Amino acid sequence: MSNKKAPAFLQKGDKIAIVSTARSIRQAEIQPSVKLFESWGLKVLIGDHIHSVDRQFAGTDDDRLADLQKAMDDPEVKAIVCSRGGYGTARLLDKLDLGQFRNSPKWVVGYSDITALHLHMYNHTDWCTIHGTMPININSTPTDAQQLSISSLRDLLFGEKKSYQLVNHTLNRPGDMSGTVLGGNLSMIYSLLGSPSCPDFESCILFLEDLDEYLYHVDRMMLNIKRNGILDKLSGVLVGSMSDMNDNTIPFGKTAEEIISEHLAEFDYPVYFGFPAGHQDLNLAMPFGSKCVVEQNKFTPVVI
After folding, report:
1. Are 65 and 188 within one domain?
2. Residue 21 exposed, middle or buried by CB count within 10 Å (0-12, 13-18, 19+)
3. What's the pTM value of the predicted model, to 2 decimals?
4. Per the count of CB atoms within 10 A, which of 120, 128, 143, 241 is most buried?
5. Where are the alpha helices (H) located in 173-299, listed in sequence order?
């Protein structure tokens, strides 16, 4: 697993694009983020189909691909921020042309369903991306945790280095580690296994988070990831929020964190739960594809 390079960090006056690769977003939902990015001194371009609706998507696959491709190809766009997750990003990957992007690389930001784009770009480009908060999570009166998430995204986009303190958790297996941080939404990783968009994760620090899954399905996904040999190769694991999990009438009998811990028990690398990222207000930005170091319970990206 190789570390990727950082696109140019943002400066005041730069252009960024907001696109919807999955679900649609309303004007009222996106306006606070536009004002925020403009307050950072950025010029904001909005995808042509960002408010379109086709079933649960922001327009057809061709609509969403056109917006993403336009932003990828524009040499003046220095960052692409996905408006929200949901479902639909993976439907675009096979037709996405990254040729022009390689000549004018830029930051790509998002989480949840955007995991599909992160992993695909890791496999097919030399550039880091950002797992971080999105416009759907940005409002005019953010909580303290949301403000920390927003600030962490700004810091990373503008090249300000930060470290995150890891929390104590009964399931932690503490230890120092270093490796390429990569991963994202557990369901999306599971769905990409065996495809040209799925890395082998060798020597990486695997980050996992998820939302609104059945506990037995968390077990099934972890089992499949293990059977594919991914867990054998890691330098360590960071587990973020496993939010709003569901159970059947006959309980599975373990929490999502306990299920993950059980599947990691046979490996000897460090594991940290409660990492401050995922489907929660505290969703701190991290550079996927970058080397990261965990020392003395502190997570530090080394963006190159």
Report:
1. no
2. buried
3. 0.97
4. 128
5. 186-192, 215-227, 256-264
Count the Cβ atoms, other than its own, within 10 Å of residue 232.
11
Instruction: Kindly report, residue by residue over 119-153, the tens digit of the pLDDT.
Output: 999 999 999 999 999 999 999 999 999 999 999 99
Task: From 108, 63, 64, 114, select the one nearest 85 (Cα to Cα).
Answer: 114
Residue-by-residue DSSP string for 22-51: SS---HHHHHHHHHHHHHTT-EEEE-TTTT
Q: Whose CA is closest to 164, among 77, 37, 286?
A: 286
Instruction: Please tell me the distance from the alpha carbon of residue 286 to that of residue 183, in angstroms, as a whole number.
Output: 11
Range of the domain at 66: 15-157
**Which CATH number is 196's domain given?**
3.50.30.60
pLDDT at 2: 80
Same domain, 40 and 136: yes
Report the chain's terminal Cα–Cα distance, integer Å: 15
Cα 114 to Cα 40, 46, 108, 242, 304, distances in angstroms: 24, 18, 9, 17, 22
Helix (H) or strand (E) holding 292: strand 291-295
Please report whether residue 198 resides in a domain: yes
Would you say residue 283 has pLDDT above 80? Answer: yes
**Nearest to residue 45, comparing CAs of 7, 75, 23, 9?**
75
